[in-house]
Amino acid sequence: MRWLSWLLLTLCSFVWAQERQVIPLRYEVSWDEEELWGILLGVSIPARPTEPKSVKLPSVSDASFFVAKFADGNRLFAVAKKRNKFILYADTNGNNSLTDERPFEMRQRANKMVAGPIPMLINLGDKKVTRHVGVMFLEIKGKRVPRRSSLFLTAASRWTGGLNWEGKPTPVTVLDRNCDGVITEDDLLILGSWTTQGKQLILSHELMELIVTGRYGGQRFPAKVQAGIDGKFFRFDVSPDGEKLTFEPLKVQAATVQFNGERISLMVEGSSGKWLLEGQGGQLIAPVGDFQTLSVRLARKDKRGRIWLVSANAFGPAAPRFSVPISGTTFDIEPLKLTLHYGQRGDQCEFWLDIKTANGMKVDNLVTSSGSPPEPKLRLSSPEGKVIAEPKFHYG
């Protein structure tokens, strides 16, 4: 019976497998400073009184300098204050100079300053292309903390096209998520609408339901990926210049993985490369083989009907092993393990918590549809049992 089930799964995957498709994608500027999406950190350089060496700079004072990595090398950014306004300079042509660049006046949005879209001329192989980015600048200063500033790059452009998905024309959007000008597996492909009309980006039960069912803002994939979604196996491959998407169905020997939850997303890596695997209703169809688990995102409801969403990651040799035999297996990340750390800074003692899954992955996000989990409590006692202090933890 197990062999019959495997045969049916393989045949279903083969029947679903439509023809290979090669879709042209068109580049377009897309910038909305009210909704800064596609955010990625640039490599920040702390503000300093001395100017970076071997770089031609404009005549500005009190400037903060940053560098960000692009496909053809590092680019310098500078933010200066002039007549109570923040001015941005960017090395848009890659000539290691800011003196020939026009300044961009930054606008305030909440507690940040933004500018965009900024056209960046990039050498991509044997051709030059223009990519657009947005810039967000944050400055923190106060009486008790030294001045600190950070600069972020955001996607201010995208590639769009259409794919025949399960017999229906479906929009496709590709984002250069890390804003380096070239499309790799680190970037994002969205199948379906990339926005959900009328939905606020706040943590609510309705929003969590959309996330759990995969209906919030379309399905998201790396721009280059092998994927298995609800037993359907395929490959997406966006060309480095973003101008072409190749969709290819795959025939895979697969087995059933049971899990406790409503929806699961795994990124695993084995001899056949990396796989993005998703399942729902407590069942995941995965390729047979031995893998390392790189990331997991699990959503499930508790007895009170609240939805819990946990995300965890692992890197390098520390990534836990995950084997899928032909007979199937189970995947479980519980119970979660909490570790208390402490250290001393001057006359103060600091405490912090690490959360790990049962298989050793580091938890980086744990939320519920009813808000953050209760803050843990800490009690400090003397060896004689006398309570010295009961400090509180906070999220952040």
Number of helices: 2
The pLDDT mean sits at: 82
Helix content: under 10%
- Tell me how many strands there are: 32
First-to-last CA distance? 51 Å
Extract low-pLDDT stretches.
1-15, 37-50, 196-205
Q: What would you note in describing this structure?
A:
The chain is mainly β. The chain is built from 2 helices and 32 strands. It has helices at 2-16, 205-212; strands at residues 21-24, 26-29, 39-41, 43-44, 64-70, 73-82, 85-90, 104-105, 107-109, 112-124, 127-140, 148-155, 157-165, 168-175, 188-191, 219-222, 224-229, 232-238, 244-249, 254-258, 263-270, 273-280, 283-287, 289-301, 307-313, 321-324, 329-330, 337-345, 348-356, 362-368, 380-381, 387-389. Strands 1, 17, 18, 19, 21, 22, 24, 25, 26 and 30 form a 10-stranded mixed beta sheet that branches. A 5-stranded antiparallel beta sheet has the order 2-13-14-15-16, with no helix packed on it. A hairpin with a 2-residue loop joins strand 9 (107-109) and strand 10. The longest helix is centred in the first third of the chain and has 15 residues, at 2-16.
SSE layout:
Blueprint lengths: L1 H15 L4 E4 L1 E4 L9 E3 L1 E2 L19 E7 L2 E10 L2 E6 L13 E2 L1 E3 L2 E13 L2 E14 L7 E8 L1 E9 L2 E8 L12 E4 L13 H8 L6 E4 L1 E6 L2 E7 L5 E6 L4 E5 L4 E8 L2 E8 L2 E5 L1 E13 L5 E7 L7 E4 L4 E2 L6 E9 L2 E9 L5 E7 L11 E2 L5 E3 L7
Parallel strand pairs: 17-22, 20-27
Antiparallel strand pairs: 1-19, 2-13, 3-12, 4-5, 5-6, 6-7, 7-8, 9-10, 10-11, 11-12, 13-14, 14-15, 15-16, 17-18, 18-19, 20-23, 21-22, 21-24, 24-25, 24-26, 25-30, 28-29, 31-32
